[in-house]
Request: fold
Amino acid sequence: MSVIRSVVMGCGSYLPERRVSNDDLAKVVETTDEWIVERTGIHERHIAAEGELTSHLALKAARAAIADAGIDAQEIDMIILATTTADNTFPATAVTVQAELGLHHGAAFDVQAVCSGFVYALSIADTFIRCGQAKTILVIGAETFSRLLDWTDRTTCVLFGDGAGAVVLRAAEGEGTTADRGILTSHLHSDGRYKEKLYVDGGPSSTGTVGHVRMEGREVFRHAVINISDTINEALAATGLKAADIDWFVPHQANKRILDGTAKRIGLPPEKVVVTVGQHGNTSAASVPLALDTAVRDGRIKRGDLVLLEAMGGGFTWGSVLLRW
Ligand code: UT7
Reply:
């Protein structure tokens, strides 16, 4: 049976120049390189320069993805940008990217699902493509998460970083089997009962300020391993594929211990897990496309590979996307 699939035509990413090590942070808050590495696997993170905005990072990643896809930017008929750190309260940062790319047609909008944002955005893009409402969609995850950090709170400020990643999706005909290239299945979830476990204590309608990240780390950790494993099993059940069929697992990069725990739970060997948390920290909506682009650039992910993406974040929100590269 002939079906429409959303195929990844190209990807790209961008990291701000400034790298901040754990030792640098130990000068700001009471922490140590040993604690951060042992508890999270993070060695360093990139932090945006003053005046460097989410749209700047997004645009650089977008341009790299468009070049990699080998298309003309004018062919893009939709831009979906996942971010928690928009340039302004409104308009959507996606419209800034749209204008900078010289596009005056189609639609551009932001998606807010915090760390799950890119997985949400991919799933939304796939739905638009499969129902025929768009043909070529630029999907971006971009964050200047450092702007939300309380630099006196050692329990959160050591965990996050800034960056952006993007993919270009295009409608293509498939056979309707798991041998097709493109997105094979996606699954999204949220449960607002847990919104106070990970949130920002400000906003336009409450305090009128941007606010800072607050997190009950241990609780988030516990839910993350369970929710992520469940949504992976959901993706496998929906396609009839097995964990052994997965070539590359590209998880949200929050904590090396969460990645290891999840991989073990679903029976994936460590060599199939793409781990960038050590160099990037947790870049929220940018983490999955940054990890994806890293593994494509270094030659690990190749055309035809089965790639599993997942994320979990504030809300709680979580989800998975299974695709053939
Ligand atoms: O992207 C969205 C999803 N986010 C996540 O998935 C994050 C999930 N959570 C985590 O990754 C981990 O829970 C953390 C890395 C945040 C914390 O690790 P933990 O092993 O759960 O540590 P903990 O919160 O239980 O804290 C252990 C101790 C505490 O001291 P006491 O109370 O035992 O004396 C903390 O005060 O470590 C202390 N601590 C620190 N010590 C040095 C907390 N942060 C630091 C720090 N440096 N930066």
User: Anything to note?
Assistant: The mean pLDDT is 98. The chain has two domains: 3-174, 182-324.
